[in-house]
Amino acid sequence: MSLWIVYLIAAAVLMIIELLTGFVATFCVAIGCVIAAVLDFMGLSIEAQLIGLAVGVIVAFILFAPLINHLRKKHNVHREEYNSNMNALIGREVFVTQSIPDGGGVGRVTVDGDSWQAVSNSGDAIESGVRVRVTGYDSIILTVKPVI
């Protein structure tokens, strides 16, 4: 098997790792492997290939790392604007399915067919069947208050 094929296989594996982990360095090494594959295909010596690989990694890291990190930060800022996971439950109106005892006791509510543990935000008891609004959460326990 030619060495340039090994370089390309290594580049492909590194790109898969990059897609799974988001670790910029693997992308840069994959670029270096592609450069080394081209140099081997051109018939240059192993020393030239290794120098090409090293220079390719360094140049790719200098060029792409700041850009990729900037795009990640930009993407994360926009992601925070959307309600997701537990935050999406806040403000929802649901029904109590198991009475919530007073004094911070835990009952249950159903949200979209899923049963969640719930406590009253005021510490007062809430009977089964009462419509409540989700006001917050602590871990996986929802905090609710009766809808008036």
Automatic annotation (TrEMBL):
It is found in: Membrane. GO terms for cellular component: plasma membrane. InterPro entries: Membrane_assoc_protease, NA-bd_OB-fold, NfeD-like_C. Residues 87-146 form the NfeD-like C-terminal domain. It is a multi-pass membrane protein. Pfam families: NfeD. The chain crosses the membrane at residues 7-38, 50-69. Keywords: Membrane, Transmembrane, Transmembrane helix. This is NfeD family protein. It comes from Muribaculum gordoncarteri.
